[in-house]
Amino acid sequence: MKEVKSPKRPLLYYYCVVLLVVTLFNFLAMPWMSQYRIQEVDYNTFVSMVEAGQVGQAEIQEQDNRILFTAKDGSAVYKTAMVPDTQLTQRLLDAGVSTSGVEIEQASLLVQLLGWIIPLVIFIAIGQFMSRKMMQKMGGGSGSMMFNMGKSNAKVYVQSSEGIKFSDVAGEDEAKENLAEIVDYLHNPGKYQEIGASMPKGILLVGPPGTGKTMLAKAVAGEAGVPFFSMSGSEFVEMFVGMGASKVRDLFKQAKEKAPCIVFIDEIDAIGKKRDGQMGGNDEREQTLNQLLTEMDGFEGNTGVIILAATNRPESLDPALTRPGRFDRRVPVELPDLKGREDILRVHAKKIKIADSVDFNKVARMASGASGAELANIVNEAALRAVRDGRRYATQADLEESIEVVIAGYQKKNAIMTDREKLIVSYHEIGHALVAARQTNSAPVQKITIVPRTSGALGYTMQVEEGNHYLMSKEEIENKIATYTGGRAAEELVFGSITTGASNDIEQATKLARAMITRYGMSDDFGMVAMETVTNQYLGGDASLACSAETQARIDKQVVELVKRQYGKAAAILTENREKLDELARFLYEKETITGEEFMQILNG
Length: 605
Ligand code: ADP
Known about the structure:
The protein is an alpha/beta fold. The protein contains 23 helices and 16 strands.
């Protein structure tokens, strides 16, 4: 897809135009005007000029007590104060000076007026010109100032050979299937109209960031071969109330002219937030939303304009926007599963030179939880690493290292950890892994390294993909909490002291324990009562408590007890396996890296 843009002139161009106008004015108009500018001279000069025959015309203004006169060749105008002089008339007659000088006054008055008006006109013209250029820059397109601000300035993508197709979007099969229907409709609307079916007007793509929502929307346009208007929700919101609404009107006007076509609004939550009617609400945003709702009602289902919108906060959208007849279809675009990740890696690996021996399945398993955008980044990082090392293609090792780079940051080359710190980190990481392994009897990790990373992590554990399972039992969550506490438990057991290294574990364990009690109904005390609601499903999953202060205190107490119980369990497992713990920690301390297989070998050896 190719974006169409109008060319821009550099600012220097406008400066040159202004300079040219000013120079021309100086050269042409100034000399002519100075001819009529009145110079003041004394009476003696006047008399001597008359006697020398240098005066052309003279006008005696008795009421103003002055004499105006011109040079003989008409090149200048002079004035002088009147002095009582009985011979004045005779002098003028002798010198043959004409005294009917009415035009002198008129001409000089005109020139004086022009001297004021011309520069004023020039400056106003320049000002107008500059401000119009500025507005154009802000609003795009041409026209007068106010009209421009209401233009939608949507980016229009036209069909080109490199258009994105469904095959470029890996995984996301359900989403693609859903959208393929839209493509079919755009190709062949008659089939649908015959039976009386109308297409949904709007389709909402929801999912975490970087899962390919924008890509999918572009792919729909690419497959259907129709124009694609793209605009971000935040671009509608302007400084002035009503401008966003006028942008929406303009966007839909353009779209209807180009129908069939696709309109894509990214981050629609910027304008589509619930209208809550609170004081200090955002009038501009609400008006924009109202206009969008009206526009969506205003066109028939069969005009061929399909609106796609993307958001990662669907719960914050106004219910009026998501009701049937507007965005009536919701397509989830979730984080890719194992197969999806492998496909995404393959799609992006086509763009770089890569060794044939690369095991994409293994890389996909290691990158569990990564989004499409992260996987694209991993492949690119691998290519960059290959270039850094002077190789002509990327290898498996490049990919594996770049997973860690993308997730945990670059290796800190000169981080100095004391031996004791290194030993503590080794025990800490092995503590987690050992508790996990003893609870499930399987390899808990792909790999553990204790090379410090730029993200601040001192050690890094790559978890084993747990397969696609959607339910977790109470025991599994408890085991997970025990695993989180395993690091700290190992430190305490071995060194008898504790460090700050466990802060992230503590956070995670607490979150899980709290969720068990407040959301999953897994406590004996409260049963199936929800104390918490999740507000941001796709962006970290923040939760807000909805219960009395007294209940909160009880919840807190139970959370503490639950985590303590699991800590006790972890400590017991480690005490029981103290020898293995020492052996594994020493291995990690010496080698700095331990793989899942090595770990299991030592454990079962
Ligand atoms: P979103 O709009 O969901 O935040 P994008 O569509 O902008 O995400 O995706 C960002 C980048 O991530 C894309 O340019 C693409 O390189 C990569 N990407 C994401 N998902 C996929 C996928 N399913 N297949 C291939 N590439 C993907």
